[in-house]
Amino acid sequence: MDVITRAEWHAKKPSSGYTRLASTRGVKIHYTGGKVPADLAEPGSHDRCVDMVRAIQRMHMSGGRGETYIDLGYNMVCCPHRRTFMGRGPHALPAANGAGLNTGHYAVLALLGDSGLVEPNDDLLHALVDAIEYLREHGDAGREVKGHRDGYATSCPGDPLYRWVRRGAERP
Ligand SMILES: [Zn+2]
Ligand SMILES: [Zn+2]
């Protein structure tokens, strides 16, 4: 598994401490939605993944989601180069699943849109399974893998990724 540490992606420090989660029932999968460059999955494009993750953190910490988050809202972020960015990490309460739904599941984001890059490639799916396994091993995540739309009114994580979740979220 290829983890990008917070130091490596130049994450800002969280503005206060995380709320600790002893364990969860599992993991919920998210996508960025919106327009993601169609060529993001090309081998030379990974620097743009790093830029995207930093931009999402800045947006979350500056109130772009309506409230100011202490950090990126996700526990981990996966890109189409089979790399996994450390977000809040294991045993931290995410801020992504919807009010009242963050204690039940960790939140893992896929860099995937609803225009441009919309179909997950195999490397993205492998990275998601890497993240799920990591959160099981290090964060006591349970066996459930669900989509953001399970229990919350949203299109997230998009139809292609949600179909993969419903098929069992297995390695391609
Ligand atoms: Zn979502
Ligand atoms: Zn990448």
TrEMBL record:
Q: Which SUPFAM superfamilies does the UniProt entry name for this protein? A: N-acetylmuramoyl-L-alanine amidase-like
Q: Which Gene3D superfamilies match?
A: Peptidoglycan recognition protein-like
Which molecular function terms from Gene Ontology are attached?
N-acetylmuramoyl-L-alanine amidase activity
Any single biological process term in GO: peptidoglycan catabolic process
Q: What is this protein called?
A: N-acetylmuramoyl-L-alanine amidase
Q: What is the lineage of its organism?
A: Bacteria, Bacillati, Actinomycetota, Actinomycetes, Streptosporangiales
